[in-house]
Every structure is written in structure tokens, then in C-alpha cells.
From TrEMBL:
Name the UniProt record assigns to this protein: Bis(5'-nucleosyl)-tetraphosphatase [asymmetrical]
The family this protein is said to belong to: Belongs to the Nudix hydrolase family.
EC number: 3.6.1.17
Catalyzed chemical reaction(s): a 5'-end CoA-ribonucleoside in mRNA + H2O = a 5'-end phospho-adenosine-phospho-ribonucleoside in mRNA + (R)-4'-phosphopantetheine + 2 H(+); P(1),P(4)-bis(5'-guanosyl) tetraphosphate + H2O = GMP + GTP + 2 H(+); a 5'-end FAD-phospho-ribonucleoside in mRNA + H2O = a 5'-end phospho-adenosine-phospho-ribonucleoside in mRNA + FMN + 2 H(+)
Pfam families the UniProt entry points to: NUDIX (PF00293)
Keywords annotated in UniProt: Hydrolase, Nucleotide-binding
Keyword Kinase: no
Cited PANTHER family: BIS(5'-NUCLEOSYL)-TETRAPHOSPHATASE [ASYMMETRICAL], DIADENOSINE 5,5-P1,P4-TETRAPHOSPHATE PYROPHOSPHOHYDROLASE MUTT
Signal peptide: none
Occurrences of domain Nudix hydrolase (ranges): 1-141
Classification via InterPro entries: NUDIX_hydrolase-like_dom_sf (IPR015797), NUDIX_hydrolase_CS (IPR020084), NUDIX_hydrolase_dom (IPR000086), Nudix_hydrolase_domain (IPR051325), Tetra_PHTase (IPR003565)
UniProt-recorded Gene Ontology molecular function terms: bis(5'-nucleosyl)-tetraphosphatase (asymmetrical) activity; nucleotide binding
Amino acid sequence: MAVRACGLIIYRRLQSAPSSKVTDGIEYLLLQTSYGTHHWTPPKGHVDPGEDDLQTAFRETQEEAGLQASQLTLVEGYKKELHYPVRGKPKTVIYWLAEMKDYNTEIKLSEEHQAFQWLKLEDACKFAEYEDMQATLKEAHQFLCSKE
């Protein structure tokens, strides 16, 4: 059976973004793991028994980044499912898109992560080494651009 994980791609809008291109003023939150290869990902984690996928995404975001569901606005209409092998076993990760309500909200990392960054799309893709994560960030960005 595939391992199942869920998370949120969290973004915030720069307050000083030039009004001509709103999407230039978007930054994505990536967390650096304190284990393994120290890769960078959005907050995510395994689904607990009795939990639905979206509950998992919000719980993991709270545990890993210290963000409450009330501090985020879930973006309607975006959901991305990734499938890839981890140590020879299939893994499914589902991401939703969420916007920070307050630009200045503090991020509080758990022991699972050693650093975080707010990054514009291009830099976020450089930090997220995996192609499917890069593609997901670009797709989420396109989705946001199309809504503007």
C-alpha cells in the first residue's frame, strides 16, 4: 500500500509589490529538513488514522511551521497529487494551496526542520531539487496568475 502524505503550499504576497505584476510579489514557504539530505519542501506529513487529507495538511503545517489554520486562507480549486517512490515503496503526496493572511506571521519550526525560507518562484524551484516539486510550484504559481 502506498504511503500517503498531505501538505500545504503556503505563499504570501509582498506588501510592496508593484501593481503592474501582482505575481512578482508572491513568495513561497519552504522548510529544510533536519534529517537525510536536508532537502527543502512545503510543510507536509503522513495521514494519521481517522484523519482526512485536508486535516492532515493543516495539522502538519501547524506542527512543522507553527501556523494555525486560522492564519491561512485555503485557495479554492487547487489540489495537486504527486506519486513517487521512497525507499522502493510508492508514496502519494497531496498538496493544497494556502495564502498567509498576515504577511508578518512568525514561522516556528519543529525539530523536523532546521531552516525555512520565503522564496520567489524561481528561487523556490532551485531549493526544491525534485522535478515534480518544481513543476508543482510552477503549476501553483500559474494557477494564482490565472486568478488575478
